[in-house]
Amino acid sequence: MATTAVDAPAAPAPPPRRNRSRLTLRNTFIGWTFILPNFIGFAVLTLVPVVTLFYLAFTSWNAFGQANWIGLENFARLLTDGTFHTALINTGYYAVLHIPLTLAVSLGLALLLNHKMRGIAFFRTVAFFPYITSIVAIAVVWNMLFSPDSGPINQFLMALGIDNPPGWTTSATWSMPAVVLTSVWREMGYYMLLFLAGLQAIPRELYEAARVDGAHAIQRFWNVTVPSLRPTTFFVTVILTIQSFKVLDLILVMTDGGPGTSTLVLAQYIYRKGFEENDFGYASAVAVVLFFICLGLTVVQFLLNKRKEV
Amino acid sequence: MKRTMLTGAAALAAAALTLTACSGGDDTAGGGEGDAGNAENVDTITLAGWSLATTPEFQVLADAYNEQNPDVTVELQEYDATEYDTQMIADLAAGSAPDMYVLKNLKNFVTYQDGGQLLDLSDIEVGDEVNGVDAYTVDGATYAIPYRQDAWYLYYNTDLFDQAGIDYPDGSWTWDDYAATAEELTEALGGDALGTYQHSWQSTLQGFANAQDPAADVLSGEWEYLVPWYERIVELQDAGAQMNFGAVTTNSVTYQSQFGTQQAAMMPMGSWYVATLLAQQESGDAEQFNWGFAPAPQLDSSTTDNPVTFADPTGIGINPAVDADVAAAAKDFLAFVASEDAASALAEIGITPAITNDAVTETYFSIEGVPTDELSQFAFSTHEVRPENPVSADTATLQNILSDAHSAILSGTVSPADGIAEAMDRAQSEVLG
């Protein structure tokens, strides 16, 4: 290579071009070596399973032997499967409660903890703490708090004069709200952190200008904070939506889908059909439906966001 | 550029699909049938087990065999206890499963058998004394050899019965007698303990119903026979003689703590609890008190001479991917597993072996601390054990539907009749229809 470089001046026109193409090649090669480790990981652990899943959704497969191609049969079965419909409705119900509540609570927390005051780091840590605690521990402790007879929550409600406090996780009506409350409590710290980052990126001059114009606190919140937080809010909403539709672990440990099927969600239904009933083809079909729901909702959110930006 | 990436990804995915599709099924020819292998060429065979530190039965079998066959070592391969089947299915599909594996429950037997993952073991000689072989027999061929056959008993705390001044179970009880005694005990004990404790598992109720009720047929999807069983336990809950289902699930109550710390005077539970209770009384995890076990209550008095109870057998099968020599060695080990020597070795550590003849019974009751009264000995040695679940591809799905009904009824969201009717509708539309 060195000799080429030395020889180069002798022939005026072509060498620089050859050099450039060689450089491009080298850069591409270096680029690939940077991407490759990550890409192989992604391909082996995500891409291949996802593609396989799409294939399996059109088959009947019990983990051993050949997967039999059955076309759209699994999807036709979904149309008449009452338990799938229940799981779909429950998942929607969870999302509808969970998304706005988490948004409101985490934004509220972020606003509260965005002030300069003593011990602020401590309070922020406290708010973030549930997020790094084990889900199983959280589920067990909250189940005890929700216990209908001896749990502190109902004892407190009874002390307030409520004679018939809810049965929480043991009642078909209240089990989902109970799970959502626990889940909001667990996740609020994480989203609070995202909102805090967003809040701190808002230029102080905007607030000063608003103040000079005579805007009071609420007006400053609606006209400065909310619009400036839009990228953060958008990001949080998208992530929250996907997370809500994928919810599994907390429900699995807290209620196991019960009582009856009152908290059975799509992710658990997939787990049941696949790993408990060894019906992997049908489980894959449900997973494909869940995938398209998440994809659809995300696309809609992006479109709405774009329209607002314009 | 984009196109190359896409083509590459597609090729990769196609390769993966071919791999996953081809890994099972076809390679069943390698093992035993036809060409008889030579077991002498093999010095190590591997066996799957779970939680080896707290489940000594696999090592006991391996050691007992090794004593008689010093040239062959049975090496244990550890799996996670709760994810056992998921991990085993993955390993079998990937071709990395051990030579022999335990069938932890009957529910998944059909998956392995139907999927061609078990060698035909019909040529192994198994004596009539071994219980549970039928459960592993499909179309006349046997696919696993049972080494352990649990049974469900009624455990009772004699100290609490004495305190209440109520007679111990005498082996003639029906479920109505049991429920009536539970209520009497609760009243007499005045808050010190409840009359009985039935754990939240669907087995504690459906297992008995399916084994004892002549009308029982899980696979038919006709489950009206379960209604009176549920009405009985709902009444017990309402009367305060049995802990509320909601309290059990929300407080993560364990059955060991309920009976072991004298919170309940009676408890229907599997035979494995004898060894657990002895160990816990010794370690201090359970309180010191006198106890015994009686045959499980019966549907009516016609079966009290030979009480009907339930529990799945635990068997060992051979991975069909092994070569003929290993298969021959594994079959030799399984023939030992079905022998009285293996049964005695298991009885010594408090496991209920698949053989319960006089010699084994004697070994079992010579363990220090095991209640030696006549009724406990009768309960151990005389009973008819029926499998908890029928072997069918639909069992797991139907059991999940029944499990939903179980939690809905016991938590009081629906009445027993409505809950069962709803479950029957689901069974019809989702599985049988």
UniProtKB/TrEMBL annotation, chain A:
GO terms for cellular component: plasma membrane. The chain crosses the membrane at residues 29-58, 93-113, 125-146, 282-304. Residues 88-301 form the ABC transmembrane type-1 domain. InterPro entries: ABC_transporter_permease, MetI-like, MetI-like_sf. It is a multi-pass membrane protein. Belongs to the binding-protein-dependent transport system permease family. PANTHER family: ABC TRANSPORTER PERMEASE PROTEIN, INNER MEMBRANE ABC TRANSPORTER PERMEASE PROTEIN YCJO. This is Sugar ABC transporter permease. It comes from Ruania alkalisoli. The lineage of its organism: Bacteria, Bacillati, Actinomycetota, Actinomycetes, Micrococcales.
TrEMBL record, chain B:
It is found in: Cell envelope. Its main location: other. Keywords: Signal, Transport. PROSITE patterns: PROKAR_LIPOPROTEIN (PS51257). It comes from the Bacteria. InterPro entries: Bact_solute-bd_prot1, SBP. Residues 1-21 form the signal peptide. Pfam families: SBP_bac_1 (PF01547). GO terms for cellular component: cell envelope. Belongs to the bacterial solute-binding protein 1 family. This is Extracellular solute-binding protein. It comes from Ruania alkalisoli.
